[in-house]
Design goal:
F-box domain-containing protein; six-stranded parallel sheet; Leucine-rich repeat, LRR (right-handed beta-alpha superhelix); 27% helix
Length: 478
């Protein structure tokens, strides 16, 4: 008996249960490439597997293996499918309707032609419990998207299609609990939730317009509501959609307009409409001319400094930068993971003083300008969890740099947490790479060739060179 046969015979002793545990850590491509055709036992075992397909960022060779071998072999075993709409694969090669056991479906960067082909196929996927369809950001869909398919087991549905969605059917979605819609009319949304989604608990929606018809009753099963609305005035939104949902426990509003920043109006509305509310979040944008002075902003903040808000620990803040056209008003701690600020020309006014105000911020775009006589850097370590740092220079040629520039940056972020740094703009101090000496976890730098040439003298420093060679895994020169 050869050594290879001995090794195979020993491998044969491994029970199926252990093999199945091993397969959990391998892709279907690796599993079938390695084990199929070895013997009948392995063939039978592989054909019985639940198969999870992920075609994101796969080479053509791997896709062809899936398409010409694996899909025809086990079409009824595929329970999860993730892919991107590229090369017309979903039009001419992949037939989703053949995967009748599919439970999880995610497709990114959809084109309109592909979307029109996919939607009719969804009715064949009766076991689907998770659906996530995302169109390209720049896609231009002229007509509204009409959703008419029955998905009896669907629990989570994400339709980010950059176009108004209309539900025109009489099919119930009895198991739908989480729904995310990119664009929807208030009237269509209210009728759909009341009539067809008796178990819906979490809704995220971008509303475009409309009003709730009088015949719609109150909806009691929805517990969480996240609204994006940049075209609907405060009173129209609150007089229509809010009257529909009286049992909310979480409410989050992302909107445009200073009328959304009046604490007295919010307190009157929330206290009378949502007795069970335990989480309330705002992120509002409006033009600077609406609140031109610091005193104006402080007066607005005082409308949120009431016993009602303090008891619930709901705090808020303005972030103001004169060089930007808009002011932001948001709940604390801020839920966004990205933020843009000016090192010397940004003021943050809050209803609380807490070091955890910006604990969720992972990516900071920091604009560097010459400080004026009245400006001062932001308070110490307010962005202590930042991992991705973008330094945006607005310095002019031959302009002297602030002598405390590096110290002021170090007071704002923790250099030891930084994992990637990008330099954007025309002019930086030639010594900027000295910062590497204080960033032990940095592994990625993006820098222009022009900047790199100007910093050549700095690169003669042995310590800097050691950091570049030992730490940096990704160097992008633009």
């Amino acid at each position: 008996m050869s050594s290879s046969q001995i090794k195979l015979s020993k491998f044969e002793l491994i029970p199926n249960e252990v093999l199945l545990e091993i397969f959990e850590y391998l892709s279907p491509y690796d599993i079938f490439q390695a084990f199929y055709y070895l013997n009948s036992r392995y063939n039978d075992l592989l054909i019985s597997l639940h198969v999870r397909i992920n075609l994101l960022n796969k080479y053509k060779k791997i896709f062809d293996y899936y398409n010409y071998f694996l899909f025809p072999l086990v079409p009824y075993n595929i329970i999860s499918f993730r892919c991107e709409d590229i090369c017309d694969r979903l039009i001419y090669q992949i037939r989703l309707s053949e995967f009748i056991s599919l439970k999880y479906l995610t497709i990114f960067n959809l084109n309109i032609e592909t979307l029109q082909i996919i939607i009719p196929q969804l009715s064949k996927l009766e076991k689907l419990i998770y659906l996530n369809l995302q169109t390209k950001n720049n896609i231009n869909i002229e007509n509204e998207i009409i959703f008419q398919r029955q998905l009896p087991l669907i629990q989570t549905c994400i339709l980010n299609l950059n176009k108004k969605i209309s539900f025109q059917n009489e099919h119930f979605y009895p198991n739908l609990k989480d729904l995310i819609l990119n664009q929807c009319n208030i009237e269509d949304l209210g009728l759909f939730i009341q009539n067809y989604t008796p178990q819906l608990q979490h809704l995220t929606v971008t509303l475009i317009d409309g009003k709730i018809p009088e015949e719609i009753d109150k909806i009691h099963h929805l517990k969480s509501l996240i609204i994006n609305s940049h075209t609907i005035p405060f009173h129209r939104l609150t007089n229509s959609i809010f009257n529909l949902f009286r049992d909310l426990q979480r409410l989050s509003i992302n909107a445009t307009g200073i009328e959304y920043t009046n604490g007295k109006q919010w307190q009157a509305l929330l206290s009378s409409t949502f007795p069970q509310l335990n989480c309330f979040q705002l992120h509002i944008i409006f033009p600077q001319e609406d609140v031109p002075t610091s005193d104006d902003r402080i007066q607005l903040l005082k409308t949120f400094e009431t016993l009602y808000f303090r008891q619930r620990k709901w705090y808020f803040a303005f972030i103001y930068c004169p060089s930007m056209t808009n002011i932001e008003f948001f709940s604390l701690p801020i839920i966004n993971k990205k933020i843009d600020v000016n090192l010397y020309n940004t003021s943050i006014e809050t209803t609380m003083n807490d070091e955890h105000t910006f604990k969720n911020i992972k990516e900071l775009s920091l604009v560097l300008t010459d400080p004026n006589e009245t400006s001062s850097p932001l308070f110490n370590s307010c962005f202590f969890n930042v991992e991705n740092l973008k330094l945006i220079s607005e310095f002019r040629e031959y302009q002297p740099f602030p002598k405390n520039l590096y110290v002021d940056i170090s007071r704002l972020v923790k250099f030891s947490h930084i994992k990637s740094m990008e330099l954007i703009g025309m002019h930086f101090p030639s010594t900027i790479l000295i910062l590497l000496d204080y960033m032990p976890n940095l592994h990625s730098i993006t820098i222009t060739l022009n900047h790199l040439n100007k910093m050549t003298k700095t690169l003669t420093d042995n310590k800097i060179c050691q950091h570049l060679t030992k730490l940096i895994k990704h160097l992008t020169i633009t």
